[in-house]
Amino acid sequence: MEVLKSLKNRWNAPTPTFWKRVQSVGIAIGGIGAVLIAPPFSLAIAPYMVAVGSVAGVLSQLTVDDQR
Predict the structure, then answer these.
(1) pLDDT digits (tens, 9 = 90+) for 31-61
(2) Angstrom distance (rounded) from CA 19 to CA 44
(3) pTM of the complete model
(4) Where are the domains of the chain?
(5) Please, which of 13, 15, 31, 56 could form a disulfide with 64 given CB 3.0 to 4.6 Å?
């Protein structure tokens, strides 16, 4: 239960500027990957792009600035 509370606090804490940029790039890569999965001639790299974008977005959201 302590872990979930810690994750919730980290999720709601402000994200540093650098990690906001990483989050934006991750979301963009995931979106491009999702678009590339949709057509019948799907590229082999598209699922990896979605996975990398999702992980980058979530991990950058959980990053907090401890020096504040």
Answers:
(1) 999 999 988 887 889 999 999 999 999 999 9
(2) 28
(3) 0.80
(4) 17-68
(5) 13
